[in-house]
């Protein structure tokens, strides 16, 4: 395939559940050829409206912690901005200058320094597990540790600190809520269940949990789990994001570096590797989500035609009866004429009529070229 011409994700459709930086992620995917279905799975409650944050901030100013852990850049900035709005911003900064301030990664370090502060340490791995290891190695018995929470509690982190004897103070900087407009999320859910998507990307654990919760609310959780376990790739930006999915027995793929760029590169590697490639009638045919690569030509195929093609490709070279093909057509009923109509449109879309042969009174077959196996394996 000429990926320079088409992009490695050409012919694939990727769902984006992110609320933040969704435009950036969508643009990265589209530049590599993907079709993108965006449905924010959640929204962020503004910190200035959160009375719990105000109470926690005042409590920390009044009673100094030994350690403060900043976990996200947007959360730390929001905390400082909210404190400014309440008239206690300088008091908060003064308190933070006198404690052991840990920043989870480079973006958090940038937010800390933009506030005029300096972090004492930041893990090279950007992992909260490394932060926890450092604190436990130092010893936390009798120490007061404040941690900036983001969306939902960090699994096991707070419990491990408390088991080590620490007093843990949670700072609820922002909260995840369901999206105000649920319709896009429902469309993404329906597309996943119907296998119209090839992958769904997740950049936060609350987004994954929100999709699962919505599926359960609509009575579609078994269908969603089946799709994600067998047909639709779950691509997560990191291991914490993957936890809600893994709790439901869903295998996930994650990049080594927990960033949007590596997440997109992961999709560029995994989705083409999942595509079915066959030597048919002298051509190299690669069956993707909503398109087919015939040699170097990308041919979009309508959903009905793709259903027929996938059914034929399950047994390439063998005759597939019209009745079986009819069952593969969504909403076709019992009219075998629907198969003929869809097959004619499929052949037109492929632009290579000899790929699919009609076997009179029996059905259709892909014109598999077994002798070409070695040729395409070496290509």
Structure, described:
The chain has three domains: 135 residues, Rossmann fold (3-Layer(aba) Sandwich); 132 residues, Rossmann fold; 103 residues, Winged helix-like DNA-binding domain superfamily/Winged helix DNA-binding domain (Arc Repressor Mutant, subunit A, Orthogonal Bundle), CATH 1.10.10.10. The longest helix is centred in the last third of the chain and has 15 residues. Helix 4 packs parallel to helix 6, helix 14 packs across helix 15 and helix 14 crosses helix 16. It has 379 residues and is an alpha/beta fold. The strands form four sheets. It has a five-stranded mixed sheet with strand order 3-7-6-4-5. The chain has 17 helices and 16 strands. The relative contact order is 0.11. Strand 10 and strand 11 form a beta hairpin.
What tags apply to this protein structure?
single chain, 379 residues, alpha/beta, Rossmann fold, Arc Repressor Mutant, subunit A, five-stranded mixed β-sheet, four-stranded parallel β-sheet, 45% helix, 20% strand, elongated, disordered C terminus
